[in-house]
Design brief:
The chain has about 170 residues and is of the alpha+beta class. The protein has four helices and five strands, in the order αββαβααββ. Strands 2-1-5-3-4 form a five-stranded mixed β-sheet. Strand 1 and strand 2 form a beta hairpin. It starts with 17 loop residues before the first helix and ends in an 18-residue tail after the last strand. The structure holds FE2/S2 (inorganic) cluster. FE2/S2 (inorganic) cluster binds next to loops.
């Protein structure tokens, strides 16, 4: 049975693979034991979420409820976590670079496309478990995942542009 999550290619108009991440709606959010909780843009009531922990550039952990089907970039922005995303998910930069702390979680997601790999090659501090946050969807298999935001990024898209959440 396929247990890999789909990579989001929304910029190209591809719809996330709902089947790969589909599940029943939960009645409550997953609770976590992090040092920081954010609820600035709460998921809709009844919306299924997973727990995602972002480790920021200062090493501070932010554990949030990530709605299934949203990209890790969108979730970061909705929770005011400082992940750049200069091209807003159009695969034209590498500023949404995230590093999966646990290789087991990394293996659960679909491999990066060639275009994502090309952008990743430009990323600062590339690792074997690097991905672009705008290309990875929250899905059940990633519940409990921890991702690190590198201490720096390279922005070839629009220098210094930091999109604001909508
Ligand atoms: S936001 Fe530019 S590639 Fe992800």
């Amino acid at each position: 049975m396929l247990r890999k999550c789909a990579a989001a290619l929304r910029a190209r108009g591809l719809v996330p693979d709902a089947a790969a991440c589909a599940s029943r709606v939960q009645s409550s959010w997953l609770q976590t034991s992090s040092s920081s909780q954010h609820q600035s843009d709460a998921p809709a009531e009844g919306q299924e979420t997973i727990s995602v922990t972002y480790i920021d550039k200062e090493g501070k952990e932010h554990t949030v409820a990530a709605p299934i089907g949203k990209t890790l970039l969108e979730v970061a922005h909705e929770n005011e976590i400082d992940l750049e995303g200069a091209c807003e998910g159009s695969l034209a930069c590498s500023t949404c670079h995230l590093i999966f702390e646990d290789e087991d979680f990394y293996k659960k997601i679909a491999e990066p496309t060639e275009d994502e790999q090309d952008m990743l090659d430009l990323a600062f501090g590339l690792t074997d478990t690097s991905r672009l946050g705008c290309q990875v969807l929250a899905c059940k298999e990633l519940d409990g995942v921890r991702v690190r935001i590198p201490s720096a990024s390279r922005n070839f898209y629009v220098d210094g542009h930091k999109p604001k959440p909508h």
